[in-house]
Amino acid sequence: MKKLLIASAVSASLLTSAVAHAETASILDNWEQNAYAQVKVGMTDMGLSDDATTVTGVVGLNTPSIHPMLSFEADLTFTVADAESAYPSSIGTTTVEASAFSIGGYAVANFNQLGIENLTPFARIGLAYTSVDVTASNSYASASGDDSEFDLGLGAGLRYQMTDQFSAMVDYSTVSELDTLNLGVQFTF
Questions:
Q1: Handedness of CA 87, 143, 180, 37 (dihedral sign)
Q2: Is 134 a member of any domain?
Q3: Whole-number Cα distances in Å, 87 to 80, 84, 96, 145
Q4: In a domain, 84, yes or no
Q5: pLDDT one-digit tens code per residue, 3-44
Q6: Is CB count within 10 Å lower at the N or C end of the chain?
């Protein structure tokens, strides 16, 4: 009986490994047909009076062999214009500036089976590392600080397919209390 259980466990393990390898091979063999890239420009609310302007680069892979509506993405976001606030006082104006950097991995549900021609709603969930730098200065002194953390990233948006390879998109994302409204384009390989 013991040998039968061991043989069954080994057989199940080998079968599971073969299926997982076949799924991975199927995804990776067709990566050129399923890959895409995005560039997005966004306005990020960092809690100051002026929002930061950010640029996000995304690489993604549709995975129809796993599920026709599922894709996976990795993104990199950085600030190109800092968020800023000015606080006047009797000793002068103190200016506070903040910038951010984020890198994350996401699973994306593309609701392209809704029957709306060329328009695809999508939702994202993942994990991101975010780093925020803050500087405060006036004519007498300056101080700076930074904070970084891993946090849950969420997002939702719409993608409009203009041609077979190009799409325009808008999305809203939030990670580490940084809320961003993005406009961008997607190129499908």
A1: positive
A2: yes
A3: 23, 10, 8, 18
A4: yes
A5: 444 444 444 444 444 445 445 555 566 677 899 999 999 999
A6: N
